[in-house]
Amino acid sequence: MATGKSSGGKEGDKKTTKTRSAKAGLQFPVGRIDKFLRKGQYAKRIGAGAPVYLAAVLEYLTAEILELAGNAARDNKKSRIIPRHLQLAIRNDEELDRLLEHITISQGACTCLLWSERP
Q1: Domains, the chain
Q2: Exposed, middle or buried: residue 81 (CB in 10 Å: 0-12, 13-18, 19+)?
Q3: How many other C-beta atoms can be found within 10 angstroms of the C-beta atom of residue 69?
């Protein structure tokens, strides 16, 4: 008859696994990025630190864009970020604009130039 107790060993010895994302203190999935790097065949060998570094960079860029887009939404008295807020956030930041200058954001509308600002 089973009484519900496990036989043998101590009960508190179970080891919890910690993901690589948790070890690095990241929200982005390091394991998934590692899988994509290996599957994409960008190189024959992928170092152990490469997916961690890439996840950290992607998380930083995402946080930066979302913070600026949240500010743009708040300036427009909205509580939800829409593509227009992303567009405004990226185009008003010099570094992000240079990084994403060839990117088209769907439903982002245009950032109109004044005649005095034309090149």
Answers
A1: 22-100 (1.10.20.10)
A2: middle
A3: 20
**Nearest alpha carbon to residue 54 among 78, 89, 19, 29:** 29
In the chain, what is the straight-line distance between the N-terminal and C-terminal CA atoms, in Å? 85
State the pLDDT at residue 78.
Answer: 95
* Contact by Cβ (8 Å): 85, 78: yes
Which residues, including other chains, have CB under 8 Å from residue 24's CB and lie 6 or more apart? 30, 52, 55, 56
Distance CA 31, CA 29 (A): 6
Per-residue pLDDT tens over the stretch 38-82: 999 999 999 999 999 999 999 999 999 999 999 999 999 999 999
